[in-house]
From TrEMBL:
Transmembrane region(s): 283-312, 318-348
Region Disordered: start-end pairs: 88-111
InterPro entries: SANBR-like, SKP1/BTB/POZ_sf
Record keyword Aminoacyl-tRNA synthetase present: no
UniProt biased composition (Low complexity): 88-98
Keywords, in A-Z order: Membrane, Transmembrane, Transmembrane helix
Protein name: Uncharacterized protein
Amino acid sequence: MGIVTLVVRDPRRGGAQKALSCELSMLTRGSGFFAAALAGVGPGQDARIDVECDADVFVWILRYMKTQHASGGDVAGCGAARGAAAAPAAGPDAPGRAHMQRRHQGGSGGSQELAVGNCLEILVAAEFLQMPRLAAQAVAFAAARLPELLAARPEPAPLGLLPPDLLERVALAANEAELEEAFEKIGACGGERRCRPLQRLFKARLSALLRAHDTVLLRCAACGGLFSAAAARKLPCEAGGGGGGGGPHDASRLLLHVPDPNWSFGDYLRALRRRERRSHREIYWHVWGLVQVCGWLLLLLLLRLLLLLLLLLLLRLLLLLLLLLLLLLLLLLLLLLLLLLLLLLLLLHYQMRVIC
């Protein structure tokens, strides 16, 4: 049985070194990074690896590996769990999130439970070591405990240490309502300094929002309004019909928004930040409203068309009813005429008998 000696150099402690040992099979099964690094080491061979990491974090991860290895589970989750690790990016309300929370709050991890004080460091380390299952658990934990992370004393949790992709995963693992709840709790007592990490989450969420809708904002050259590029050919422009001549084809074309080529979405966002001093949270909701409302406008347009069709059908039905009423009136008139003729005939017959 091969043994790997891990010499951990802790940069937080001035480069102090700590030697740890671990079975080769457990290490390669538990981490995709170590599996690649030790690919040339035979099953019965010993090896040595130097690691630069926070010693406490690395010890925690090794204990996690041992606990998972002892239970016979797939420690790294490098197969199917790799897809699950990316699942939070697909939407903020992924159903797997609650499952992940149950796992790290007392499942097969044993005593190795994530905590507010270590979840971010473990997330970074797990991602680097290619342990997607642990990374997914850390993402779910951080998203569920955002208020506690931001309220940590004496300083809020350092969300800034997360690379952009992990920051976005945490931002997407928490839905908008949870982010707003965290903002209300932290903003009421912590001020701008404690809200700053939360603003980073809104910034990351904005990038994900635009990517999910495959769109940016454009400004209409005719009306000056902002609209989503994804709905550029579907949204009507109220000011579009006022310009230009031509025929009916030109008029229908002008009813659509015309993008202003001299307007830049990036410059607009920078202006909101620098000149108007808007926070990333305010910018997120501003853009969210423009992107999402476009969908509602399309729905309203469809509803309008349906209402118009219903009105046309009702008008046709009313016309048919009027025609039927007219036919009935004509029939009644004919019946009255027939009755009058019969009366006249009877009168004539009576008079003829009297004369005779």
